[in-house]
Predict the 3D structure of the following.
Amino acid sequence: MLRVGGGILAWAGALLLTATGVLAAEPIRVLIVDGQNNHGVWPKTTQIMKSYLQQSGRFTVDTATAAPQGGDPNFRPNFAAYQVVLSNFGHGAAPWPAETRESFEKFVRGGGGFVVIHAADNSFPDWVAYNEMIGLGGWGGRNEKSGPYVYFDRQGKLVRDESPGNGGNHGPQIEFPIIVRDREHPIVQGMPLEWLHAQDELYDKLRGPAKNMQILATAESRITGRHEPMLMTIQYGEGRVFHTPMGHAEYSQECVGFITCLLRGTEWAATGKVTIEIPADFPTAEKTSSRAAGK
Ligand code: ZN
């Protein structure tokens, strides 16, 4: 142990005791991948998510951006250098090079974390392993061949619905209540069991393989009358995946509920644990709460 000017600096495994005496975990290395997304706002949402992650002090963040159109043969991020990859790709993204797909599959299967935000669950409808990682997806020709619709019915029963039909839909953007369905999972533990999410698209009719998938929270769609999954975890090999279809635009991502799920979900995907606390300005059942990026 080294004493420096009254403070104490010491390495204890992955834990750093700082000069102020605060026990801080070593930052988690995050890679955000992006470059092709039907949401024109994507460069901004990447920056917003990057800043929320970094401001928490728990993460360091790099980005890897594919060429704006078509397959990019030079898109070859070194996934192995990170603990967790976050996708801000979207609908219509061109397939990654075969080697990049293989190295990403190896990364997650071997225990890497993966975070899926909003339209990232629209990407790569024909990539079998990717669809297993995200659990549920939408658009891109997804249908009954992709897997069941998965939701809670009005009685709170989990339904896997194999009926035919397209995957992926949403109504007009609204504020909507998020209902926590699993009180024990570290990502949602301590969260109000109902909280009001800021204006966003409420994805409905997602469908996919939904293997090894747990639904942590839902929102009732006015379109389907179903309680659609809003926070999900998927085990893929040794890897942990956190998936939220929330986060359409910057005002959706500025919701303190979204920010908290982003931080805790990313930490959990990387480490299997959550140390980030629920903040005091978390939304309530009656009131949304937003925090502008950079503030
Ligand atoms: Zn959207």
About this structure: The first strand starts at residue 2 and ends at 4. Residues 174 and 199 are 5 Å apart (CA to CA). Residues 1-13 have pLDDT under 50 and may be disordered.
